[in-house]
Amino acid sequence: MAYFVLLCTDKPHHQEMRLAVRPDHLAYLMDFSESVKAAGPFLDDKGGMVGSMLIINVDDRAQAEQFAAGDPYAKAGLFSRVDIRPWKWVIGEPGVA
Question: How many angstroms separate the CA atoms of 41 and 48, rounded?
Fold first, then answer.
């Protein structure tokens, strides 16, 4: 298993799409609750959601890419960019005392 961070940037002026698809996105994350270790939106200066960050624990990069492609936000075309980066959790790692 390996950690990956997904950094997702919304297309400009797509707040309505984000809000419309959000229930499906959240349900998708809950379906993968064992793999999703942290998730949340990026905010602009006014508090509007403009992207997403997720930390997932999966077998390999191919599985991380598959997870990202299956996200309802991605399927709806919300993101202008998705970066997937391998990541090493050092401080506050789940299950480590």
Answer: 9
What is the pLDDT at residue 93?
73
* Whole-angstrom distance, CA of residue 74 vs CA of residue 11: 11
Task: Determine which helix (DSSP H) or strand (DSSP E) holds 75, and give its type and residue range.
Answer: helix 72-76
- The answer to pTM > 0.85 is yes
69 to each of 8, 43, 44, 84, 93, how far by Cα in Å? 11, 22, 24, 11, 26
d(CA 91, CA 18): 31
CA 36 – CA 13 distance, rounded (Å): 27
